[in-house]
Amino acid sequence: MISVVLLGAGNVATHLYKAFKASEQVSVKQWFNRNLKKIETYKNEVEIINDLSKLIEADVYILAVSDDAVAELSSQLPFENRFVVHTSGSVSAYDIDKKNRRGVFYPLQSFSKSAPINFSEVPICLETLVKTDYKLLKQLAVSISNHTKRVNSDQRASLHLAAVFVNNFTNQIYRIAHEITESNGAEFDMLKPLIMETANKVQHMSPYKAQTGPAKRNDKKTIKKHLKALDNEHHKAIYKLLTESIKKTHGR
Q: pLDDT at position 252, please?
């Protein structure tokens, strides 16, 4: 049984807690957050604390906090030579205070508290600065996920940057599409099968081969018609930028 102390109460921390609680190989000994109200719902399941001095000994301490808080929180931990990891895609393992053994436990997924997650399908990227710590971190990851991968800092940073494109930017495109359909009384839900098909395609073919549409075909009349239909200048600029990117990629 791997003992864990969780620090933080955001989306990642909440989903991690639920995944660990469901695992027979992990025991969450404590859950720390400065504002206990955010985790008081779980007080009958796990010991919740808001005082770092009350932290007990555990195999792994997981800092599931904002990127900016990792360094400061790790420096305030009242112990040394224990195994401390963070869950960020962009923060270096070296940002954790060097008084403890350091690592990264990065679940590569978009987390919203209200949206359930099947953690067994979430890729977990692992990094340790001490080689002997990797086995333990791997065991922890395998206890909740079927997809674990050892990555270095550069690879993790690249994955995080790419994740912003495929998730955050794509979601903003969905938002723009929602505005476009709403403005003309059309139903955004009609686009959902297309959204699913687009996502499904890249499961078995490259994004390059999956690309379709007027930009790839260099269909100038359709592109001109679309630009004329866009009243929002910001949306028009995005359309132009992405159209030019597709045309450049496909040699148009």
A: 65
